[in-house]
Specification:
Blueprint: H1 2-34, E1 44-49, H2 57-65, E2 72-78, H3 85-95, E3 103-108, H4 117-126, E4 135-139, H5 149-154, E5 164-166, E6 169-172, H6 178-191, E7 207-211, H7 212-217, H8 220-223, H9 230-240, E8 245-247, E9 253-256, H10 261-278, H11 280-309, H12 315-339, H13 347-351, H14 354-359, H15 361-377, E10 380-383, E11 386-392, E12 395-401
Parallel strand pairs: 1-2, 1-4, 2-3, 5-8, 6-9
Antiparallel strand pairs: 4-7, 5-7, 10-11, 11-12
Helix pairs in contact: 1-11, 1-12, 2-3, 6-10, 6-15, 10-11, 10-15, 11-12, 11-15
Length: 405
């Protein structure tokens, strides 16, 4: 029991540190959201790779046409002209949703052979940029940016010393699906790891801006060859060059969709397998931390139940477990309240997810343990109908590919 209580105190202390991090995240979001934007509005190339019919795809891509930005081009990249999502993009282009001079192009990159399909699409797109383009912006097809997203994301690059600017995703379930809420809680913990320390931030490929000159100087397109992770590769290049990555909380974008339990596990396992290959220094502490927490919290619950059945209820153990739970719940609440600033339009939907964030976070930690353990033994992922074997950060083998429906 002494060993258990020792580890319980460690988990308790880590919970206190985590809560402090939650307060720092909330302060950062508040401070950054109050800052006036610079008037840095160079010509921008917005690159949107897509494959298959995402939930709400039309609304997601419509938001790209409706940006309050003076002059930019939209480059949509697909791997096959038979993809049914192509019709959605073509219809949006015909509707001319933007009043300004937005140039729209659709590129067919063809099937990838030596890298992830998304990375292959991006490599094709960056070879065909408008000559006026000074900034490259990358966005995912499951993201739904607000009207000020592009201007806000590009603004930090007014400082030429900034390597890149990035937002992140926030899952907003479209229904009461337990799996969708659990995925949102699971993903939320990553969000609050971002903040003022630019050396610890990372580029998220669904909402990232980088100067064209920086992109070309670091030879990121060449670095992408053989990879499946565009964002880990870009992050590594910027870190090696000692260029800071600014986290822009107002560019946190909603991903509005649902999922079942199988899809949730497929997503979370894929994220940790990619992390295991491209950033093992992040995977290892995550494995150890989730193992420590689950051992103490869930192990403690079992011990508490056994003791109660034997008529020897432990108030000390109950108090420890309750304190650990409250620390995590408070952090989750603080984080959720902070997120309502950049996602103010979705405040009602966020309010409906409060109970999930307050009570499901221990289960999300258990899912992290499962994901990290799976990643220790498997490097095979499925991503948008394509199965890859991640041999190394620079070698991804395509095992199987299917047509998107």
């Amino acid at each position: 029991m002494y060993i258990f209580y020792f580890f319980a105190v460690v988990v308790l202390w880590l919970g206190v540190l985590s809560l402090r991090g939650g307060f720092r995240f909330a302060r950062y979001v508040e401070q950054e959201s109050a800052k006036p934007l610079t008037q840095f509005t160079p010509f921008v190339s917005v690159i949107a790779p897509f494959r298959g019919l995402d939930q709400g795809l039309s609304e997601n891509f419509s938001s790209l046409f409706n940006q309050s930005y003076p002059n930019y081009e939209l480059i949509f990249v697909i791997d096959s002209l038979e993809d049914p999502a192509l019709a959605v993009v073509e219809e949006l282009g015909r509707r001319k949703l933007h009043d300004g001079p937005v140039q729209t192009r659709i590129l067919c990159a063809g099937r990838a052979t030596d890298s992830g399909q998304k990375v292959h699409n991006l490599r094709v797109a960056v070879e065909q940029l408008d000559a006026r383009s000074e900034v490259l912006v990358f966005v995912d097809s499951d993201a739904r940016p607000g009207p000020a997203w592009l201007k806000t994301l590009v603004a930090p690059l007014a400082d030429s010393n900034v390597g890149a600017a990035s937002g992140y995703r926030w899952f907003i379930p479209t229904n009461g699906s337990f799996a969708a809420h659990l995925r949102s809680v699971w993903n939320a913990s990553i969000t609050s790891a971002l903040g003022a320390d630019s050396t610890r931030n990372f580029c998220w490929g669904g909402s990232t801006a980088i100067r064209r000159s920086t992109f070309e100087d670091l030879k990121i397109a060449q670095r992408w060859k053989g990879t499946v992770s565009d964002d880990f590769t870009m992050t590594g290049a910027l870190q090696q060059a000692h260029l800071p990555i600014n986290f822009v909380p107002m560019c946190i974008v909603p991903s509005i969709e649902t999922c079942n339990f199988r899809e949730m596990l497929e997503f979370t396992n894929r994220q940790l397998k990619i992390t295991r290959v491209y950033a093992p220094h992040l995977w290892r502490p995550l494995l150890i931390g989730s193992l420590l927490f689950c051992g103490v919290f869930f192990g403690g619950l079992v011990m508490l139940a056994i003791a109660a059945l034997q008529g020897e209820f432990s108030w000390l153990l109950a108090a420890l477990l309750m304190t650990i739970f409250i620390l995590g719940a408070v952090k989750s609440f603080i984080r959720l309240r902070a997120i309502t600033i950049p996602l103010q339009r979705y405040e009602r939907e966020l309010d409906r997810s409060i109970l999930a964030h307050l009570f499901l976070w221990p289960l999300a930690s258990f899912i992290y343990l499962m994901n990290a353990t799976v990643a220790a033994f498997s490097r095979r992922i499925e991503w948008r109908g394509i199965t890859y074997e991640l041999k190394s950060p620079n070698q991804a083998v395509i095992i199987r590919s299917s047509t998107q429906n």
